[in-house]
Amino acid sequence: MNILGIIPARYASTRFPGKMLADIAGKTMVQRVYEQARKAQSLAAVAVATDDERIFSHVRGFGGDVVMTRPDHPSGTDRCHEAAELIGGQYDFVVNIQGDEPFIQPAQIDTLAAVLSPDTELATLIKPIEDYRTLTDPGEAHVVINTRQEAIYFSRSVIPFVRGEAMENWLSKHTFYKHVGLYAYRRDVLAAVTKLPVSALEQAESLEQLRWIENGYRIKVAFTDIESVCIETPEDLERTLVAIQNSEF
Question: How many CB atoms lie within 10 A of CB 58?
Fold first, then answer.
């Protein structure tokens, strides 16, 4: 299985412009993500896909592979598709590695890659929810799966609903999962999903993976126990820097 890892890294961000170049204890966010991804044994190659000359030059400066993509992509999936076309090569799958998770573990990427096979269309990573705050956080995408270990729905609401139980007891009554934003696309499927129009469910929940499900694509899931650290705001960065100072990473 030949797998290409792509890190979408646009400069513009509503909540944290330029966060890809934010300094995290001596290295930028994008460099940390790139170096972690390069450690994954399952990836044949890794490249950053950006729309900004500052990020492009920076990645080149630390010796990373990078391609310049259009600035008008509506999602990381679309940017991954263009980048894969620019890079070329005989890759069976493309893995979309989130550019704002500087401490992503190579094992997470390898865990996702382990469930890929020629008949896999799409795959993603999920993690059991262990605390009430995460369970009720609308910022988390919750996932329900079928017996074939495929995602059948993602929601910002808590799903499923446990009837007859107070919500604070739900974690003891059912295994809930949250989505970890790591995607694998079979090359032909990646090309196909970028041509799909925005779907009703996607619009309602603001989750692009619902477009794929709504159009009949199957999303295989892999399970991880590793907690991800996503930096979406300057406040997230401050908390991360404090955690580094306290030797929590």
Answer: 20
